[in-house]
Amino acid sequence: MKKFIMFRRKKREINENIFKTNIDIFISLVPIFLASFIYTLQPLITIITSTIGAEVVELIYLKLYRKQNISERKDTFSSTAIGVLTGLILPPFVPFYVALFAGAMAVVFGKNVYGDIDKKIFNPVVLGKLFVVTFFSKFLIPESPVWGFDGALTIPIDNSSKIMSLFITSRGMIGSLSVLAIVIGAIYLIFRQRITWHIPVAFFITIFIGLNLAANNGILVSTSLGEFLFFGVFVMTDKFTSPEHSFGKIFFGVMLGISTIAFWFLGVQSEAIIYSILILNIFTRGINIIYKPNVFGNETVSIAEIIQGLGFAILIMILVFVFAFLHNNGFIPYLVYIYLVFGVWKLYNQNNED
């Protein structure tokens, strides 16, 4: 009985923390919202549509599978946060049905198939993007007009100026249109202790080195600075799909950077970051076990932990080569189809158990 009470108390504390974290995420995104709305209302429409898709499937899930009312929702605003963030990694002029689909898929196959938000394995936002890449790839090619505000500008923007581009640009996914807005949001989240510096900084330093290596080898990287920053701050730091402890976070961030760079050299460009995040998500729980503090709470790295980390690094790179091979030969959609079937099977079993 005592263990049950402690479990319920811990669960309540997790849910309360999730609620507060989501509120802070929304606040941190305000500068990005303001920056994107300088042009037109289209970014807002895309974000709202993605959020509606996320919320609708969440309500259906609660009613049909959990037999719960809306008021009984435990992880308040989690689906809303997923929907908003999924909308932010989409192009501003993507059709409404694509944004709706992205938000819905992110929640169903990133969150609901695992039952609770704290049990998820893959980052829901990245899964939502992957489903769009699979089913609506024509809207995500760099040349697609849905990415830019050309002809829809309400203010003059000089994109040739590097300084000006830090404040606002007219092309890219919604969340990456202003580097300054992302930095402001990151500072707020760190100040509120919702994220730490470890993953973003480790990732950014590794990527900076990789960009120089790519340039020296004649590889043109299409990902913008804003995209690197947005993914590093708002996506890679997801609480339940990234490591808990400092050394684990640094390892996670470095390997995300190395994986992304490896994908560039293997011929994968725009999908490099999302593939890297999904691969690292698989190892998150193992990284937590390897790099957990000792019984006295000290975080030190032993020789055994270094060897285990190297083992993980080798496995991660093997998966990078596998994903690159599958991507370059057009097989990634089949992995998505398999995961889709797996998700439907998991949901069906949940319904039977209930």
Automatic annotation (TrEMBL):
Keywords: Flavoprotein, FMN, Membrane, Phosphoprotein, Translocase, Transmembrane, Transmembrane helix, Transport. One of its GO terms (cellular component) is plasma membrane. The chain crosses the membrane at residues 21-39, 82-109, 121-141, 172-191, 203-235, 247-266, 272-291, 303-325, 331-348. GO terms for biological process: transmembrane transport. It comes from the Bacteria. Pfam families: NQR2_RnfD_RnfE. This is RnfABCDGE type electron transport complex subunit D. It comes from Leptotrichia rugosa. The lineage of its organism: Bacteria, Fusobacteriati, Fusobacteriota, Fusobacteriia, Fusobacteriales.
